[in-house]
Amino acid sequence: MSMQKVETFGEILRKLREKGDMPLRKLAAQLDIDQSTLSKIERNERNPNSDLIEKVAKIFKVSKKDLQVAFLSDLIAYKVLDEDYGVEALQVAEDKVTYLKKQK
């Protein structure tokens, strides 16, 4: 498991914005999205798209890979969050991904 702090994409985005002392409206304008949409992304009520992830990486000069991993892990975590065997399924899925990549 990664030593990376467990944070959602939205939490990471908010921290980047606040650390950069950037108002919500200014970042929304740079991302070419509505301010309310950005607010929802920061509150984990809406998912970003890959174009937005790339723009965020450029604006804040951070790793696109790290942002993408945070986003994808959010998708997976929320998908299995309320499942009885979610954590076990994640462990099996990790093995399946390795297996399927070898099959390609």
Query: Major beta sheet, specifics?
Result: none
Overall mean confidence score, pLDDT: 92
SSE order, as H and E?
HHHHHH
Structural class: mainly alpha
Global morphology = elongated
Termini separation = 25 Å
Total beta strands: 0
Which value, in Å, is the CA radius of gyration? Answer: 16 Å
Q: How much of the sequence is in beta strands?
A: under 5%
- Give the proportion of residues in helices: over 70%
Task: Provide the low-confidence segments as ranges.
Answer: none
SS summary, helix count: 6
Describe this structure in words.
The chain is mostly helical and 104 residues long. It has six helices and no strands. It has helices at residues 9-19, 24-31, 35-42, 50-60, 64-80, 86-103. α2 (24-31) packs across α3. The longest helix is centred in the last third of the chain and has 18 residues, at 86-103. The two termini are 25 Å apart. 16% of the residues are buried.
